[in-house]
Amino acid sequence: MLRPFVLTLVTLFVLSWLLPAITFTNLTTLLIAGVVLTLLNGIVKPVLKLLLLPINLITFGLFSIFLNAGILWLALAIVPGFHIDSIVLFGLQFGQLGSLVLVSACISSIHSVAKTLL
Questions:
Q1: Domain coordinates of the chain in residue numbers?
Q2: pTM of the model
Q3: Per residue in 44-86, pLDDT tens?
Q4: To the nearest whole percent, how much of the chain has pLDDT over 90?
Q5: pLDDT in tens, 29-47
Q6: Which of 43, 85, 96, 114 is close enough to 21 for a disulfide, judged by CB 3.0 to 4.6 Å?
Q7: Which is nearest to 71 in space by CA: 93, 106, 39?
Q8: DSSP string, the chain
Q9: Residue 22 in contact with residue 60, Cβ under 8 Å?
């Protein structure tokens, strides 16, 4: 459980550095957000994937993007001081849902690349 925690922690730190919409109040909040997101991805996400499997099959796996965004939203609701604001990218302003989907897609892609390299 240490490897996914460190990977999530580094991913959140890098994304908060790259995207000004992701903010943490302090380093302790970043650590707590990393722990909460790792636990949610390890415990809650597999259960939700199993429960939402029919929807995921119908949409050919595209619903998993929204599942990841929901897990990230749950982490935002649990951890005080961890915020994702609206993101403006290439002149387009994404709302809260669009920002969550974009950030969760970034986190998922970084995790998948890191799993193949490590």
A1: 2-117
A2: 0.87
A3: 999 999 999 999 999 998 899 899 999 999 999 999 999 998 8
A4: 50
A5: 999 999 999 999 999 999 9
A6: 85
A7: 39
A8: -HHHHHHHHHHHHHHHHH-TTEEESSHHHHHHHHHHHHHIIIIIHHHHHHHTHHHHHHTTTTHHHHHHHHHHHHHHHHSTTEEE---EETTEEP-HHHHHHHHHHHHHHHHHHHHHH-
A9: no
